[in-house]
Amino acid sequence: MHTHSSIRTLDELKEFLHEAMRLEHATIPPYLTALYSIKPGVNRDAAQILRVIVVEEMLHLTIAANVLNAIGGTPDLRRPDFVVSYPAYLPDGETDFEVGIQAFGREALATFLKIERPAIRPENLKAGNPLIQRRTAPHKSMLGSHPSNNEMHFYSIGEFYMAIVCSLKEFEAKAQREGGTIFTGDISRQVTSEYYYSGGGELLPVFNLKTALDALELIIEQGEGDGGGIYDGDEHELAHYYRFDELVKGRYYIKGDKPGHPTGPQLQVDWDGAYPIKPNLKVAEIPDGSELRAATIAFNHRYGDFLKLLTLAYNGQPSLLLEAVPIMFEFRNMMLELIRNPLPGHPGLNGSPTYEIGRDVAAQEVASQAEAVA
Amino acid sequence: MSNRIEIFLTLSAELTAFSRFDLLGTGLAEAYLGTLDRVVGDDITDTLLAAFVALPPPEDSTRSQALRATILGNELLGDVARSLTKLWYSGTWFELSYAWTQRFGPKPADATFVVSPDAYVEGLLWKAIGAHPAGAKAPGYGSWAYPPKIPAFPGSSTAKSEAISVHLQNAGIMS
C-alpha cells in the first residue's frame, strides 16, 4: 500500500485534524461576511447559495471534530491561532492564494471559486512528495500546511485530506494487527444530527475506520465534487465550486450538465448590490473612541465566546450546540450593523467584522480595564 | 457623508435615544431623510434641521428644554419630529395630524405607509423591546427560552456588556 510519510504518529494525526478544523473554520468568516454584505432586496440567489455553503462549512468543522474525538483527541477552538489572521493563505498547487474578508462581488467570488476548486496535479508531478516546501513570511496565516512546519505546504486541500485518510487507514491497520484500534474515543463525545438542525448533510457518529472515511469523504465531495463531476457522490447535491460557478455564469446547473456549461434557469446577480466594506479591516484602523470601534471589539468578544461554547460542545456536551444557535443569529445582527456603518476616515468604505479573536490588543486592553474595575 | 445627513443623524439620535451607530446600522438613514424631503418637502425639513442646529450645545443643561420648546412644542415642527421618531421605530411614516394639515396645508405624499420591506425589518422598536420583527431576523430555534435582551440607553445605568452576556450565563460558560 502506498503510504504518505507526512504523518508519522497518532499525535501528529491529531494535529492534522486540528488543522482540518482550523481550515474548515477559516472559510466561514469570508463567506459569512460576503453574505451579510449583500444589501436588502437584491442578490437573493447569491445570498441563498452563500447561506447553503456556509452551513455546510459549519458541518465540515463539526465532522473534523468528530473524527478527532473518535481517535481520542481533544478539539480546542480556543487556541490562539485557531482563528487565522486575514488575509490568510491557502495552497493552490505550486503557489498560495489569499483568502480575505471582503464584500460580495466579483473579486470575492473569484476567491471563493479558488477555495473550492478541485486542484488536479499535472501528470509529471503525480509521483511527487505531497508536501512542497516554500518560504512563508512569519506573520502570515497558512492553511493546509504541515501542522509542525509552516513551510511544508500541501499541493491542494484535497491532498491535505488524502494524507489524513491514508494515515487513518495505515494506523488502524497497524493497530488491528496488534489486536487494538485507534478509535478509542468516547462515543458520547460525538456530535450527531439531533444536535444540529438544518445541517446541510448528515452528521453521523464516527467510531471506526469506515465511519471516519465516510465522514471525511462528505467534506471532500461537498467542496470539490466527486472526482471532477459537478454533483456529490449521491448525485443529489451540487458541489460548492459549481454553486459559485452558477453565480459567475448567471445560470443554474441542472442534472446532466457538463462542468462550466450550466443550462438551467437564469439567475440575476447585482455585482454592486453589496455594502462597500474595507477588505481585511483591523480594529487598529478604526478611530479610537468611535462607536464603530467599540462595536467591532464587542463582536470579536462575542465570536470568541462562541468558539468557547463550541469547544465545550465538542468536548462531551453536544447539547450546547443548540444553545449556540441563538448566538449565531445574534452575530448576524451585530455584523449587519458593522457592515452598514461608514468607516470614519475612509470615505466610501464601511466597517466590517475583523475576526481578531485572541489577537486583538485593543480588546485585551478593554478586558483588563473591565477586570480592574470589577 | 454630507453635512445635511450628519445633522439629520444627530437629530434622529436625540429623538430616538438610539446612537448614531444604531441608526446607521439599520442602513436606512438616507432613505428616511429622503422620505422626510418627499413627504413634507425640503423646505420644512431644512427648517427642522436648522432649528436643531440652533439648540444650545449638548453640554448645556437647557438643551433638552430648548428641544421641547423649539422643536417638539413648535406648531410646524412638532408633529413632523414625532412622525420622524415613529418612522425610525416602526419603518412606517404616520400621516400628520388633521390639525397640522389644516394649519399648513395638505402634502400630497403625506399618507401612512411603510417605507420599504427592510424598513419594517429594521424598525428600532424590535431592538428596544429585545424582540425581532415577525417573519424576519429569526433569532433561532429555542431562543425563546432566554429573556429578551434590552439594550442600554444613554443615561441608563445598565452596561451593554451585561445585556449581551445573558446567553452565556445560561450556557454555563461564564460565571
Task: Give keywords.
heterodimer; A: 374 residues; mainly alpha; Ferritin; 2 domains; three-stranded mixed beta sheet; three-stranded antiparallel beta sheet; 6 strands; globular; B: 175 residues; two-stranded antiparallel sheet; 11 helices; 2 strands; 2% strand; disordered C terminus
Please state the structural category of chain A. mainly alpha
CATH class of the largest domain in chain A: Mainly Alpha
CATH architecture of the largest domain in chain A: Up-down Bundle
Order of helices and strands of chain B: HHHHHHEHEHHHH
H-E string of chain A: HHHEEHEEEEHHHHHH
CATH H level, superfamily name of the largest domain in chain A:
Ferritin, core subunit, four-helix bundle
Average predicted local confidence, pLDDT of chain B: 87
Oligomer: heterodimer
Strand content of chain B: under 5%
Mean pLDDT of chain A: 86
| Rg on CA atoms of chain B, Å | 18 Å
The total tally of domains of chain B equals 2
How far apart the termini of chain B lie comes to 43 Å
**Biggest sheet features of chain A:** 3 strands, mixed
Shape of chain B: globular
Which pair of chains forms the biggest interface, and how many residues does each contribute?
A-B, 33 and 30 residues
How would you characterize this protein structure?
The complex is a heterodimer of chains A (374) and B (175). Chain A is mainly alpha-helical and 374 residues long. Chain A has helices at residues 10-26, 28-37, 44-70, 106-116, 157-177, 209-224, 240-249, 291-313, 320-340, 361-373; strands spanning 88-92, 95-99, 131-133, 141-142, 145-146, 149-154. Chain A has 2 domains: 10-249, Up-down Bundle (Ferritin), CATH 1.20.1260; 283-373. The mean pLDDT of chain A is 86. With 175 residues, chain B is mainly α. Chain B has helices at residues 3-16, 20-25, 29-40, 42-53, 63-72, 77-90, 98-104, 117-121, 124-128, 160-164, 166-171; strands spanning 92-93, 113-114. Chain B has 11 helices and 2 strands; from the N terminus they run ααααααβαβαααα. Chain B folds into 2 domains: 3-128, no CATH class; 139-175, no CATH class. In chain B, helix 3 (29-40) packs across helix 4 (42-53). Chain B starts with a helix and ends with a helix. Chain B is globular. Chain A binds chain B through residues 39-41, 197, 275, 291-292, 295, 298, 302, 305, 308-309, 312, 320, 322-330, 332-333, 336-338, 340-342, 370, and chain B through 1, 19-22, 24-27, 116-118, 121, 137-143, 146, 160-161, 164, 167-168, 170-171, 173-174.
